Amino acid sequence: MDKFVVFILCLCLTVGGVTHIYDNIVDGFLPYHFAPAWLNLYWSALGIVDLLAVYLLIKHRRSGLILLLFILLTSVGFNSYAHYGLGILENTGKLQWQTLLLGFSIGVSFWLWNSQKNRHSRQIFR
Question: Where are the transmembrane segments (predicted)?
């Protein structure tokens, strides 16, 4: 079951990462001209960072979980600021889905962290 949950998390990160890479390829580096420079840089960097988190979730689960939570916490925070503070994001649908994914990720992270620990201890005693 934990592999299925990791797959779902990796799928969501891959969709996000590919979306940002696509924006950078089609519209050039730092394509979000409507945003402040720091936010433009953050969104552009997510293309690489999201895919790095996918790799880490697969190869080094605990490091991947830490990066996943960092990405989602900052993304929801920055996107909320962009929408509610700056008024530059009109569609709240993506923000709501990100917030849902953040809540899901926080919940399953405790379970995935412990399942990794239990799997490691079972391998030691075999």
Answer: 41-58, 65-83, 95-113
